[in-house]
Amino acid sequence: MTETPGSSPAAPADGAQSAQKPLRVLIGADTFAPDVNGAARFAERLAAGLVARGHEVHIMAPAASRKHGSWEEVHEGQKMMAHRLYSWRWYPHDWLRFALPWRIRQNSARVLDLVKPDVVHFQSHIIVGRGLTIEAEKRGIRIVGTNHFMPENLLEFTLLPKAWQEWAIGLAWKAAKRTFGRAESVTTPTAKAAQFLEQYTGLENVHAISCGIDAHEYTPNFEPRTGNTVLFVGRVTGEKQIDVLLKAISQLPPELDTKLHIVGGGDQMRNLQHLAESLGLADRVVFRGYVTEEELRAEYTAATVFAMPSIAELQSIATMEAMASGLPIVAANAMALPHLVADGHNGFLFEPSNPAALAAKLRAVLEMAPDELTAMKQESLDRIVVHDIQRTISTFESLYRGEPVTDPVTNVASAASAED
């Protein structure tokens, strides 16, 4: 018998699921590996985790180059079939490619008729998700949708005048409502993000399901620190507010001898390099750019504290990875970050866009007594447990089968803070 790519056998997470027939899942995404961002990383990890459990997984996403078509790809060590769509480069962005909107329904129909999936799980409503939901609905295929999108994340790349941006945001949410409205189940990474999506689209009963990570892949370091290193990981773009972080570093006492490592790439790299020079930080800031997974994990292990100044996080996989590495977190008190950071427990929250406030919180961590820092590091490890990727995969398996689910409790940070 010929084995289908993406259907290598593996033991499911529990006995109840092992008795059920493996699923054929089509994951549709506007961004997928080798793209580096939270949505792409989640889709890749989910796909690989499903394959490891014995399911057959297909990916439909824009081609990463001019080469397009269907072929086998390996992600996270697992084989799956990828259907890469002819794509164009969007030049205002430093790497983004997009499938052609006017061909998406034709392409969706072609892939659906070829794959004949049990379920379609789309990761974005913008292009691929729109086409897949229209055509899957016609064919009576179960649809699950996950939202990783905030209009503000794309506005800086649209070239729209400021005066038109509020109008464009309204159109984006109306489009989201139409596409997600075709789904049997809608999910997003946190309760805050679910409330946000319901508020702006009118959708109801949106599930909050963590993107999840495999915490065992990361290595905490409890050795006495020999220096002070602040780490940021993420796209080097405007909404991440890395300029706020650079200004905060410049306000730290010189005797702390604080270094800042910025891991990731993006359109703001040159501007931030110039800002670092103007602030007198050229010898204290390292712009690592894109790194390998092994190098990234090493950065987490070596850091003293992780900083996330972004104001547009629907969850923040990078922050979860830092927690799994046993790092204290200093994060903006915005969007979903308070779901991960319990102020004073595994880190601190600061007033968004305020360099002085961020500097004060970073200083509090960097000047902590060793036993206090150890306790904060351990708290991060304790709090990441509920974001285990295997639990996320199990929840999506139930949604794929049309089974009722109870949203996993992941808002432990806010819950714990309320009890104090």
From TrEMBL:
Residues 36-215 form the Glycosyltransferase subfamily 4-like N-terminal domain. InterPro entries: Glyco_trans_1, Glyco_trans_4-like_N, Glycosyltransferase_grp1. GO terms for molecular function: glycosyltransferase activity. Residues 223-373 form the Glycosyl transferase family domain. It comes from the Bacteria. GO terms for biological process: carbohydrate derivative biosynthetic process. Pfam families: Glyco_transf_4, Glycos_transf_1. Keywords: Glycosyltransferase, Transferase. This is D-inositol 3-phosphate glycosyltransferase.
